[in-house]
Amino acid sequence: MSAVNTYIGRKIHRASGRSVLPLGTGGLSGPAIQPLALAAVAAVCDAVHIPVIGVGGIVDAASARDFLIVGASAVQVGTGDVRHPRPPCRCLTVSG
Ligand SMILES: Cc1cc2nc3c(=O)[nH]c(=O)nc-3n(C[C@H](O)[C@H](O)[C@H](O)COP(=O)(O)O)c2cc1C
Q: What's the 3-state SS for the chain?
């Protein structure tokens, strides 16, 4: 299984006081959610005994390794690849 997806977010345009997103809320992803995702993945890994794919805010080897440390068997990169497309092996080579 994989964990997590995006977190619900809302942003207000300061000058107008209106919601930036047309529907009011949307999915927040990227580095901002990494600590939240890490806590959730750690809880899932403690609770189940099947392989878990850690997702949420991974942008480099260090942020990927965090998920392996808390018990994930693999990782997935979403926003990080959209922002800076590059070969995964270059982005996520984890050593040590
Ligand atoms: C451009 C984009 C498209 C996505 N499409 C889907 C989708 O179709 N279904 C889904 O369950 N999650 C989708 N996600 C959520 C990602 O799979 C991932 O769970 C989430 O973005 C958190 O990881 P990240 O911080 O590495 O982006 C999408 C994320 C992005 C940025």
A: CEECCCEEEECECCCCCCECCCCCEEEECCHHHHHHHHHHHHHHHHHCCCCCEEECCCCCHHHHHHHHHCCCCEEECCHHHHHCCCCHHHHCCCCC
Instruction: Using most ligand atoms within 8 A of CB, pick from 79, 81, 82 the residue to mutate for ligand 1.
Output: 79
Residue 96's pLDDT is what? 44
Residue 54 Cβ < 6 Å to ligand 1: no
63 domain-assigned: yes
Confidence (pTM): 0.90
Residue 15 sits in which domain range? Answer: 2-91
